[in-house]
Amino acid sequence: MSELESAQGADNAAGATLTLSVYAPIAVDPKTFTWHRSTRAGEAAAEAAAAFGYEAGTPTLQARDGQVLDRDRPLAAANLRDGDELELVDVGGGV
Amino acid sequence: MTAVPPQVTRAVLEDEFAAAVAWARRNAPAWVLSCNADELVLSVRIPHPAPGAGALTLRADLRDYRAMPPAWTFTDDSGASPKQAFPAAGPVPGGASIFHSQPVICAPFNRLAYREYRGPHGNWSGADSWMDVRGTVYAPSLADMLSVIHLHLRHSPGRMK
Q1: Most buried among A77, B82, B90, B109, by the most CB within 10 A?
Q2: Using a CB-CB distance cutoff of 8 angstroms, which residues of chain A are in contact with residue B27?
């Protein structure tokens, strides 16, 4: 079973979506988003970044405990709960 | 490049410093941010996360910001920037560390990373096109720059030697 299928299976028990508050460095106030649990962290971060006005970058989400979410994994893999607060971070890397 | 009038930079700084303070409160409460609007300098006192590495002093010269990126550096107590004032590079999610051995913070948001300012990068279009650089970290505001530095510092094993 793929990770995506597993996440979708978990949806039936846990609720299909996550409503999260996302902070961005560029702004003082957060924005609230609702995503399907199977949404990849990179995709969610890109949507949040665009909503905050970012025009480029390699964003992902960071949980309050400092965990930087893998952009290629679903949100369900990060043990998030409704109401959790996340921070946008850029993982573009140096050169 | 025409110099940015200091009052223009100060107006930008007023907005961006508020966001930087809020970011630090959420993510790096031990960091101490201070802003000298007259001299257009942002300073940050940062406990290095590695045991025994002590406190770092991060400084940004904001003259001509936002037309030019800030000139970011780490300084010692005398205001100089020897290697030992810098964090060492560590493995970072997403790619290489921004802490270059030159020593310099190697990111498009640092004026000192560009060859015209004695940095290693002649492959970027020039410091006045800093917002157009792609393929590396992207940080369009002071708080974003601090966020990147914070993320890379979390993976730093200590000070540069």
Answers
A1: B109
A2: 87
